[in-house]
Amino acid sequence: MEFSTTALSVLMLIAMAVPGFLLIKTKLLPEKAITYLSVLLLYVSQPFLSIRSFLEVSYTPQLAVNLAIMFAVSLAGQAVVFFVVWLILRRRFDDPEQSAALIRDGFIGGNTCTKEPALNAEIRRCVAGRANRATVLACAFGNVGFFGVPVLQFLFPDAHEAIAYSAVFIVTLNLMSWTVGSYVLTGDRRHVSLRRALINPQTVTLVISLPLFFAGVSAGDLPDTLNTVIGYLADMTAPLCMIILGMRFALAPVVQLFTDLRVYISSLVKTLVFPLVVYLVLLPFEGMDEMLRVSLVLLSGMPAATINLNLAELYGADQKTAANSILMSTVLSILTIPVLMLLF
Known about the structure:
By secondary structure, the chain is mainly α. It has a single domain, classed as Na+/H+ antiporter like fold. The protein is built from 17 helices and no strands.
């Protein structure tokens, strides 16, 4: 696929974010609407998209093997990037108890100020340490569901197996983010949640879809009315994803977005270094299914995941770095996705 063709497809996708941007800027929708739309996306349209994808593909032993390969490679890829970046940055993490005390006293995220040099140095160390924790997640965990799925839909509208692959990738993302991701972000093992890693809309959807897939149930076996309903709900995914993204862009502090070197580096690692490593690792396997290879590389190169920001908000971690990494890597992906497609 030519660079210009892919770039145009990505730009068309990004254009769908404009209504969300304008709705926030004109105050026709409040900021809290992002939460409501995200719930609709996460619990309704995205699960139905995954279910439809499994119904549209026919079971073959090779496709079943490909799904297993997707699970193994996506999990291993995220784990390797995560732990490499963790090893590099771990000595620059903050002390969670020290940061909690500074937050409680209003020195971080509050209005309390001080002229004491030692305290100012301590505050700077804690702020940088919290940002480094968020950076580890930003380098490893990609926006597979909210951005990767629409990209695959646009680039390969007839390749339903690509969406099935993305559903598996999302499961590994949740396994990583709710366990080691939560631990690194907070520095507290109490926040490791295996229950949330296993019980979430994506995993439940896979539990529903896989038995249908292995049993050979297809869309043709279902009533037309049911297929129509599933189709309408599934088709909401791409527009909803991009509208939510546009709303987040409208709320972003633009100056901060382009002044943090840490955000530039994490975005480059996430959208270019990570997928190129995956591509090189898969290169010797000449017999691999091409759509599986393309899906693995592209999904590995998706922008930083929105779940990074959700976890930061949930645990009171560094939300600014998490949000800026998402937005900067999304902007960068407009160039990197077409570049990655040139590899094929």
